[in-house]
Amino acid sequence: MPTFKLTLAYDGTDFAGWQWQPERRTVQGELQAALERITGEQMKCKASGRTDAGVHALGQIVSFDSETKHAPEVLTRALNAELPEDLLVFEVTRAPDGFDALRHALRKRYRYVLEDGRERDLFQRKYLWHIWQRLDVAAMHVAASPLVGMHDFRSFQTTGSSRLTTVRTIFDLLVERRVGELTDRIIIEVEADGFLYNMVRNIVGTLVAVGKGKEPTAWPAEVLEQHDRTKAGMTAPAQGLFLVGVEYGDLEQCSTRNRECEMAEDEENLVE
């Protein structure tokens, strides 16, 4: 059966996450229902990661199998006509046979958006975390550096998760202030080969403690070595988190990588 790859954006505010749940509105549920109306087929869509309630996506990748005769560009237009306003399909393409949006992902990049200081942007409250205190971004940047590389990130995994391994590789961890004509935001971006449950949000909460001056810049590295979630900072709220994009290689490369390292769905995953 032909496999399709779909690139999707969504505002996670009014969704109970990606994964289908009975009696609850989810991204997977809305997408599958729209595809079924268009193709007449019942199908299951698989995402690169099952984002949690309130988490947004700028470039979620989804795979599904279908016998539809519709061309990919027709599917794109039809889906955008069927889907609600808080979901947008950028593109549908044919994928190689056996393509799996979850298992074949090599890297994912997440962005967390913070606003700090005494002024609050009322109309962006669903898309960032406001901190009333001005944060020391330079200290946060220094504190984040030791987290880059291959480490056991057990200290940044919310308890109750089940993983074969808590070792992950962070390729890039950016912390910077971006000031525009009307905005002043702190951006934290994390790119890794996989994430543990709430890993990004727990890293953000830990870095915010440093930015507030409550902990020294060496503290996140110490937390990392303790392998104990209770030693890290709070879990940052969901609304500031965005899945930015997902990187794929050829299927053989992806399959080899996944034999060597268990690929976690993402840090917002609901545990199956």
Outline the structure in words.
The chain contains 6 helices and 10 strands, in the order βαββαβββαβββααβα. By secondary structure, the protein is α+β, with helices and mostly antiparallel strands. The chain folds into 2 domains: 3-95, Pseudouridine synthase I, catalytic domain, N-terminal subdomain (Alpha-Beta Plaits, 2-Layer Sandwich); 107-250, Alpha-Beta Plaits. Strands 1, 2, 3, 4, 5, 6, 7, 8, 9 and 10 form a 10-stranded mixed β-sheet that branches. β2 (46-47) and β3 (56-65) form a beta hairpin. The longest helix has 13 residues, at 27-39. The two termini are 26 Å apart. Residues 259-272 have low confidence and may be disordered.
Short description:
By secondary structure, this protein is an alpha+beta fold.
Can you lay out the helices and strands and say which pair or pack?
Layout: E1 3-10, H1 27-39, E2 46-47, E3 56-65, H2 72-82, E4 87-95, E5 105-116, E6 129-131, H3 137-144, E7 149-152, E8 167-179, E9 184-192, H4 199-211, H5 219-226, E10 241-248, H6 251-260
Parallel strand pairs: 3-10, 5-6
Antiparallel strand pairs: 1-3, 1-4, 2-3, 5-9, 5-10, 7-8, 8-9
Helix pairs in contact: 1-2, 3-4
